[in-house]
Amino acid sequence: MKVKICGITTEEEVSFVNSCKPDFVGFVLCRKSKRFVPYERAKRLLSLLSPDIRSVGVFLGNPVEEIKRCTAFDVWQLHEYTEEALSLLSEKLLIQAFSVRGEEDIKRAERSKADFILLDHGKGGTGQSFDWSLPLPSRPFFLAGGLDEEKVKMAKKLSPYAVDVSSGVEREGKKDYEKIRRFIENARRES
User: Fold this and answer.
1) 6, 20, 23, 164: which is the annotated catalytic residue?
2) Is 120 a catalytic residue?
3) pTM of the model
4) Domain limits at 43?
5) What is the CATH number of the domain that holds 90?
6) Residue 9 in contact with residue 35, Cβ under 8 Å?
């Protein structure tokens, strides 16, 4: 199972992930987020990121043309974008995020033309999980929402392609090295 640590904002947090080696690291470019980093700052942080960790630019409400200029990322993660927007952004690997309230949301995710889908509660960053008893997609998916170093052990039973965490590895609003380390260790530990 792959691991994505999302919401990296500082050089210290980049050093944490470089040491712990998740598979993906997310940088939030949505201006409304408390974890927002402007693209120029994200590029400076990316220059410090280990080359074996894939970088993800996370977008919500950003115009397509703005996203297209954010070429430094390996992957673009899109929240609340149409299939038409996805087709305009197909030059990068795409993760399309879905807010899961019911079975219909899972079915919509299943039909996505994105390379990957991400299932979350709300628009992301809520720290809550959606109903895991819903029928899950047959295609590979990122599982997000309410995960932490303990809950990730239960999440493995759902067989996601990857788990995605942000607030679950924070202490007082900042990424915590030990929480990141334990989260990744628990995600990768054989059951």
Assistant:
1) 6
2) yes
3) 0.95
4) 2-188
5) 3.20.20.70
6) yes
